[in-house]
Design brief:
heterodimer; A: mainly alpha; B: about 300 residues; alpha/beta; Rossmann fold; 3 domains; 6-stranded mixed beta sheet
Chain lengths: ~300, ~300
């Protein structure tokens, strides 16, 4: 542009600014004077914009904290009590050298992060997009579509971090956590949630109505959790089916949780040390693909 | 570096041959328009004319297929955040967070501009006073009336001291009191130097607020001028309007006689001679007849076509 650069953007009009607002009371039934007019603020950085999206979700979430968090935390714990301890009592054997409830703990943590993120990135995201028009309001501000869904991804990951941490504390009280590396559980929860939020965005970007998420949950996520090492060691799958399990995203999640909760000795495969790297790769690849797909889906 | 104010010719908005299609439909079909700084520009058009699409492209929310756009000195699609930092936008959907109160909603919206702390709070107080929402700070959104919500939307759009305020049908569905309160607020903003772009299908709104009216139909800008000039250029000064409901030879003859147009069940005869129209009114014993000044609505109906299927 040929315009000379200016130190600060100024309003182009030359009219005098009104005096600062609120000095005199407005007459009854009339508007007060418009508040004193200044230049618009500087453009927020992308990091600020993503943080602002996160902050909005955090504020709304905190208005009904107990109702929001309780089911997401109680469900995996009931699962552990009913299956881990309940069914475990009748099992007269060890699993990778552990009692059944302790063997299940990593899967319970993985399940918590997976469902938390998947729900947030499907139903909750769809409601914000279609019914609450939250994203339309955001689009009228400096936020771009990419900022919105990067913020959304960050929020889903944060929920995975928080919920896996809380569930881990309870599992530790049950005696199912056996490694000092368990302090890393929230980090594993964060990246697990990121991977599944990304995957779920891919689904959200194509569904026509909210009921179609049922297919994703009952036909994909639930069986995925069950065959990925939650309830039995995958290497005990018959007919070489365990090879298939190695290609399921949830397998690497559960093995990573296993490394940090009960140590390498209890993992299902000799190459489990690579599982955290695979999980990280999934988090960034699925996360990026999911954000890209949602950017295209969101109309103004 | 761009300085992000008006473009070289002093315009806040400068569009050239802008096109936007949705599949087969050409929602915006080659629109060029210029909005100088400090005026209120109204885009007037029937539903589906392309007003909202145009304002979304100007508001950096939607990409154009072709043509060139300059908004506050930038290409809005290439510099979305930069442009939107300088805009205030009031859309048709309010999209408030229903469970939160007025104050929290404004705080969160301020964060989208990275406005926070004391400066933001002072701004919020000033704007709530300006939009007559003082004392409602801690009312949950779901308890606000439709009029209060709309006023809050305008307050929200002003948080960042925008250079251009875009309002998409700001008074649709509101009662007359609220409508007039909003008009009054918008006039004050204009007086303080703010540039305003308004879409509306209310003639009165355009006539009351706009310095310049662009009439949009089927994606094209078909006329553009001040409200007074639009009327003066397109129609005689006066109109005799009457009930032409009854079919039959008598009505048909009357319409022919007065060189009137019939639209629906009303007849309209235009003339610069008020006395002539008044005598026609008396002599023909017209039902429900009235002689009045030609209005923006008459121009609008003339230019955008009278029948609904047009």
């Amino acid at each position: 542009m040929s315009n000379p650069p200016e130190a600060t953007p100024t309003l182009p009009e030359t009219g005098v600014s009104p005096p600062s607002s609120g000095l005199s009371a407005p007459p009854a039934g009339m508007n007060a004077a418009p508040p004193s007019k200044m230049s618009p603020p500087p453009m927020p950085s992308q990091l600020s914009r993503i943080a602002a999206v996160w902050y909005r979700h955090f504020r709304v979430y905190c208005t009904s904290l107990i109702a929001n968090a309780t089911p997401a935390i109680l469900e995996p714990l009931f699962f552990q009590i009913a299956i881990g301890f309940g069914v475990g009592r009748y099992l007269d054997r060890t699993f990778n050298g552990l009692d059944y409830a302790t063997f299940m703990a990593p899967g319970i943590l993985g399940m918590t992060a997976l469902y938390t993120a998947s729900f947030e990135a499907t139903h909750a995201t769809f409601v914000r997009m279609r019914y609450q028009k939250t994203y339309s309001a955001m689009l009228a501000t400096p936020l771009t579509r990419r900022d919105i869904f990067l913020g959304e991804l960050l929020w889903c990951s944060t929920k995975g971090l928080l919920y896996s941490a809380i569930v881990a504390v309870v599992l530790a009280l049950f005696g199912n956590i056996r490694s000092p590396y368990a302090v890393l559980i929230p980090i594993v929860g964060f990246f697990t949630a990121m991977a599944f939020a990304g995957l779920s965005f891919l689904v959200t970007s194509v569904v026509k109505n909210i009921n179609q998420f049922q297919y994703y949950f009952t036909a994909f996520l639930t069986p995925l959790v069950y065959v990925s090492g939650l309830m039995f060691p995958v290497q005990e799958l018959p007919y070489g089916l365990y090879w298939g399990a190695y290609f399921l995203p949830m397998f690497h999640v559960i093995e990573t949780f296993r490394l940090v909760t009960t140590g390498f000795a209890s993992t299902s495969v000799s190459w489990a040390v690579y599982c955290p790297l695979i999980l990280l790769a999934m988090a960034f690849i699925f996360g990026w693909l999911g954000v890209r797909a949602m950017e295209k889906r969101l109309t103004a | 570096m761009q300085n992000g104010t008006a473009s070289a010719n002093g315009a806040i908005v400068d569009l050239k041959s802008v096109v936007k299609s949705y599949g087969e439909l050409r929602a915006v079909d080659g629109v060029s328009l210029t909005i100088p700084s400090g005026i209120c520009y109204a885009l007037l058009g029937p539903n589906g004319a392309g007003k909202s699409t145009l304002s979304k492209m100007i508001g950096a929310m939607l990409a154009a297929d072709s043509g060139s756009l300059s908004v506050v000195g930038f290409d809005p699609w290439k510099n979305q955040s930069e442009v939107k930092t300088r805009l205030g936008v009031v859309l048709q959907d309010d999209a408030f967070d229903e469970d939160l109160d007025v104050w929290s909603n404004l705080e969160i919206y301020g964060m989208f501009f990275w406005l926070r702390g004391k400066a933001l709070q002072e701004k919020m107080r000033g704007l709530l006073r300006f939009m007559e929402l003082e004392g409602r700070e801690h009312v949950p959104i779901q308890e606000l009336s439709g009029g209060m919500r709309r006023r809050l939307m305008i307050a929200r759009a002003l948080l960042n001291d925008p250079q251009l305020l875009i309002l998409d049908e700001p008074t649709t569905g509101l009662d007359p009191q609220v409508r007039h309160a909003i008009w009054s607020a918008l006039r004050k903003l204009k007086a303080s130097g703010m540039t305003i772009l308004l879409t509306t299908h209310y003639m009165e709104e355009a006539a009351q607020l706009a310095d310049c009216v662009g009439i949009v139909n089927k994606g094209r800008l078909i006329a553009e001028d001040s409200p007074e000039e639009l009327i003066a250029k397109n129609l005689p000064r006066f109109v005799l309007e009457f009930d032409a409901q009854e079919d039959g030879a008598a009505t048909a003859a009357l319409i022919k006689d007065l060189q009137a147009e019939q639209h629906g069940d009303r007849g309209f005869a235009f003339s610069n001679d008020e006395a002539l129209l008044l005598s026609s009114l008396r002599n023909n014993a017209l039902r429900d007849g009235v002689v009045r000044r030609s209005s923006l609505e008459d121009v609008f109906l003339k230019l955008t076509g009278r029948s609904l299927d047009e």
